[in-house]
Amino acid sequence: MGRCPECGAWDTLVEEKPPASDRHGKNDPSPHTAPVSIDSVTLDAEYRVLTGMQEFDRVLGGGIIDGSLVLIGGDPGIGKSTLILQVLNGLAQGPRSVLYISGEESVRQLKMRSQRLNTAASNMLVASEINIEIILSTVDSVKPDVLVIDSIQTMFSPDVASAPGSVSQVREATMKLMAMAKQSGVPVFLIGHVTKEGAIAGPRLMEHMVDTVLYFEGDQNHVFRILRAVKNRFGSTNEIGVFEMKEAGLAEVPNPSAVFLAERAENAAGSVVTACMEGSRPILVELQALISSAGFGTPRRTVLGLDHNRVSLLVAVMEKKLGLNMAGHDIFMNVAGGVKVSEPAVDLGIAAAVASSFLDRAIPDKMMLLGEVGLAGEVRGISRLEPRISEIRKMGFTRCIVPKSSLKAVAKMDGIELIGINRLGEMMDLLF
Predict the structure, then answer these.
(1) Do 280 and 325 have their domain in common?
(2) Taking Cα atoms as reference points, which of 138, 141, 140 lies closest to residue 126?
(3) pLDDT of residue 246
(4) Domain extent for 392
(5) What local confidence, expressed as pLDDT, does residue 99 receive?
(6) Are residues 139 and 225 in the same domain?
């Protein structure tokens, strides 16, 4: 049958074989699993395993949890395998043994890449295999402390007739690895390919089964890479780790604010620094705007690193409330360093950058702007203002324009002047 009788679509049916044993067969561990009182469960004080990479440990929530299933996705060539090799090398320096299963590279290729990255530890075991049954048998005999599967799309189970990479194969392989991780307590890292839309390839069910989903992001034209947690059962979501791609692998960036602002031009019109929150970490980024007369009939609106609709909304508010006529101008906006910023707390910085470029007047030196802008031109309060101010002061800024409603909840800090405003027009009076 080539056509689905329910939805009428063609070539959507997938053949699946029934499991080899019945539901209550001897291979099913569920009848032997007895429930216990949650009060009787004991936790070790050091139940998280540190990898030696502080940025990676931060994103995981403080380290690796025994029996956890972690899915790492990212664009091809972004550095997923490089990152996991360096993580495994840190783990293998101690008494722990790690097992790296590659379905895409041979053992010789893994050795060559490991030599280039200087990650050839004696406790790191490698194998090239795609049969999930053989892999589970290898894990049972070797008993590693950490298992890595690179990549989950190359794995296949003999019980499923479809080809490797199909929805059924990916789901079956993930299910078997999850059962192994929970029963044995071995943490498992799965490396997954992504689609052209940026989502992890395969069934959406895979992201629901795993404990943690990490995305390795970045532009191949930039040296910076960002590891972002979008799901974490054992820690905070939206935590990020910043890495720099070098010839010998990925290097941690402990102070990304200093790196992103290192090449900022002084007294440049259209350049504004603002603070965004990435999980629990404040990061200072430079917003750049360029306003020029439109050479053709329809003005262009090009935005990189920011929400395009949000920028258009703020430009409309500025035209209506401030009288800035930008209807016949091209507007270009960029976040320096290839960072993506989505929170509304940077609205005031966007508005200041656009006004600065339109008026061709630079923002005063050592000035910072934070705040959300409403459609009526009002400046609304933002969350987590105090850690942002602490990071701003650390980076040498002495003045900061903030929403007056948020100013009440922040204690006075030496070395920085906080200026509270209620309306967008007050920002224009202070800056220009």
Answers:
(1) yes
(2) 138
(3) 86
(4) 259-431
(5) 95
(6) yes
Total number of domains in the chain? 2
- What pLDDT shows up at residue 130? 93
CB 45, CB 162: distance < 8 Å:
no
- For residue 365, the 8-state DSSP code is T
What is the model's pLDDT at position 168? 87
The rounded distance, in Å, linking the Cα atoms of 332 and 328 is 13
Tell me whether strands 417-421 and 367-369 are parallel, antiparallel or unpaired: unpaired
3-state helix/strand/coil string of 157-215: CCCCCCCCCCHHHHHHHHHHHHHHHHHHCCCEEEEECECCCCCECCCCHHHHHCCEEEE
How far is Cα 84 from Cα 345, in angstroms, rounded to an integer?
34
- Residue 270: burial class (beta carbons within 10 Å; 0-12, 13-18, 19+): buried
Q: What is the CATH number of the domain that holds 209?
A: 3.40.50.300
Give backbone dihedrals phi and psi of 319, rounded to 5 degrees, phi first: -65, -40
Q: Using CA atoms, how far apart are residues 257 and 397, in angstroms rounded to an integer?
A: 12
One domain, residues 414 and 367 = yes
Residues 230, 321, single domain; the answer is: no
Q: Which residues contact 20 (CB under 8 A, 6 or more apart)?
A: 27, 159
Structure tokens at 281: 């970490």
Token pair 């004696």: residue: 122
Checking DSSP bridges between strand 64-65 and strand 48-49, what pairing results, if any? antiparallel
Q: What does the alpha-carbon distance between residue 402 and residue 382 come to, in Å, rounded to a whole number?
A: 9
CA torsion through residues 396, 398, 403, 405, sign = positive
Give residue 401's pLDDT: 94
In this structure, are 191 and 282 located in the same domain? no
- Please measure the distance between the N-terminal and C-terminal CA atoms of the chain and give it in whole angstroms: 71
Euclidean distance between CA atoms 253 and 223, whole angstroms: 11
Integer Cα distance of 239 and 241 in angstroms:
7
Task: Report the C-alpha gap between 95 and 93 in whole angstroms.
Answer: 7
Stretches where the chain sits below pLDDT 50 are 22-30
Domain-located, residue 10: no
